[in-house]
Amino acid sequence: MSIEFTKMHGLGNDYVYVNCFEQTIDNPAQLAVRISDRHRGVGSDGLILICPSKIADARMQMFNADGSEAQMCGNGIRCLAKYVYEHGLAQANTEFSVPGMATMPYSLRIETGRGVLTLGLDVGPDNKVVRVCVNMGQPILEADKIPVALEAEQVIGVPLNIAGQQLCMTCVSMGNPHAVFFCEDLDAIDLRVIGPLIEWHPLFPQRTNVHFVKAEGPREFTMRTWERGSGITLACGTGACACAVAGFLTGRCERVTTAHLPGGDLELNYSAVDNCVYMTGPAEEVFTGTWLE
Q: Is 73 annotated as catalytic?
């Protein structure tokens, strides 16, 4: 048995995509571990299946590099939308508008673990998608829904002691859980040590993504990520959205911001009109291939 795949990335946050309109994957969790291996596999942060949907143009099913299934991936869904459009899996016609920002000529609706999300497509003269804007929906701030095992309605600026360090934590869910820590010196953070300690902390029954953030001003911030199930990644789309929300809630940032990630920049708009977070960034195809089982 062989599997046709496409390698894609958003700001270096890379995934292996399989078109399940045409193929069937029996054990995607097991395949994710093997195919994501950067020494013996294709190499990626995870596996994303592009599936038919009864309620949207396509459905995204995502598995981290460790085989765990995730509800959402911001960089991953931008690339999926690019694939769906360029391979003609769905008709994209309706315009996409962001409150207070430019309108994109095409849109798609993608079913995810968080529900159906709408995406706008910026298409070049060669009919290739160069940028995608995702309406990521409204952030979830209730502690029990993120979830965080704390007796609090919201987790904003709450102290957390990790490995003898006193940190200040704000938690947000964008369909998946995020713990955000603002600091002044990102280089002083050893993510490989502290990342898994926070990811697996008993406070997080579903584990959590971990972000350390430096606010560079009211309209920009720099972030570093330990991604749940994948480790250090060059970018995290849902994480950038969570950091933008956390920056606004703690008074560090305005609603419209630019996130500087190791892999590049994302434009974010935590809209005051509908309380949704809009994320805009690139999507790129790297190569196609055949995985030989």
A: yes
86: its two tokens: 């360029």
The two beta strands, 58-64 and 106-112, are parallel
What's the pTM? 0.94
278-289 pLDDT tens trace: 999 999 999 999
Domains by residue range for the chain, with CATH:
2-137+281-292 (3.10.310.10), 143-275 (3.10.310.10)
Give the DSSP H or E segment for 199: helix 191-199
Is residue 243 annotated as part of the catalytic site, yes or no?
Answer: no
Distance between CA atoms of 210 and 267, rounded to whole angstroms?
A: 20
Task: Point out the catalytic residue in the list 73, 79, 133, 241.
Answer: 73
Query: Could you say which of 236, 243, 253, 276 is catalytic?
Result: 236
Give the residue among 239, 237, 244, 225 at the shortest CA–CA distance from 48: 237
- As a whole number of angstroms, the distance between CA 45 and CA 249 comes to 30
